[in-house]
Amino acid sequence: MVAQPRLAAVFDGIAGERPAARGWRGTGTIGEKHAIVRADCAGRPATFLMGASTDPGHLAAFADAAAARLGCASIAPKGAAR
């Protein structure tokens, strides 16, 4: 997870303009080998980079835990991390 402005700027444009997946907050992609989600967090962009997992709830749990650590709202849709 990257939230410092200078590091976050490195990822400008990489996450794209579309939602990562249905119900996810922010933009990005969730693929077979990796996932990238970029969302507003406390008034500034935060980028979440994740290695893909066979458990779809794993990505949601990671993103939400990192967001909570920053004091931000959940990134994943409710119930995705079950």
Strand content: 15-25%
Major sheet, described briefly? 3 strands, antiparallel
Structural class: alpha+beta
Categorize the overall geometry.
globular
Tell me the strand order in the biggest sheet.
1-2-3
E-strand count: 3
Query: How widely separated are the two ends?
Result: 21 Å
Q: Give start-end ranges of low-pLDDT stretches.
A: none
Rg measurement, Å: 11 Å
Q: Overall pLDDT, averaged? A: 82
The proportion of residues forming helix, as a percent range, comes to 25-40%
Order of helices and strands: HEEEH
Number of helices: 2
Explained architecture:
- The chain is an alpha+beta fold and 82 residues long.
- The chain contains 2 helices and 3 strands, in the order αβββα.
- A hairpin with a 2-residue loop joins strand 2 and strand 3 (44-51).
- The longest helix is centred in the last third of the chain and has 15 residues, at 56-70.
- The mean pLDDT is 82.
List keywords for this structure.
82 residues; alpha+beta; three-stranded antiparallel β-sheet
